[in-house]
Amino acid sequence: MKYSKNSLSRFIPILLVIVIMIVAIAAVIAIGRALLGGGSSNNSTNTVVTDEGRTALLTVDNSRSVRLTVRGPIVSDENFRSYRVTISPEERDITTYAGYLEKVIETKKFDNNNRAYEELVHALDKRRMMDGRVLAEEQNDLRGICASGQIYQFETLVNGETVRSLWTSDCDGSKGSATANVSEVIDMFLKQIPEGRKIVSGVGLGRDETFFRL
Predict the structure, then answer these.
(1) pTM of the full structure
(2) In the 8-state DSSP scheme, what is residue 203?
(3) At CA 46, angle to CA 41 and CA 48, rounded to 5?
């Protein structure tokens, strides 16, 4: 069968239109998948990070521990102060430090047990200790952050190694990765140490009673 030139001239534009429509539809589908896929990926990442932190927090065995570190305002080395509270199923301890090289001022240690630790970590979980936002690596560099206020760092650990670390501060422009209620989390840690508030007040890092009211 032979086609006339007129038949071909009418057929070619129709073919081009069909091809263009197919390409356009494919492009729309690809863009839609990319947008939907990107959103799902972000949600999945945030969920994994949160679940990892909660799992580490709520796992109770002798390799686990939780830690609070508080750093004071950036001042002279002689006047700089910080403290750390670490709680495990076997032990509770608090250490206060002087200077940026962390010269120990005082350390107090107390025995602990699995039941007490389990109650603590569930209380911390209810206060959302491991809730937080994902930051870029450079945003987790705490050097020089909130020079006029205090920095608060919350950690879960396995065999002394950090599983997840979150931080925040007193400064409005440096809220960090932690989204928990800071006062409630600190209160739970210091209540684990007899005279805990008195000890941290002794190095100038205490807060008034309204700070700890639940």
Answers:
(1) 0.72
(2) T
(3) 95
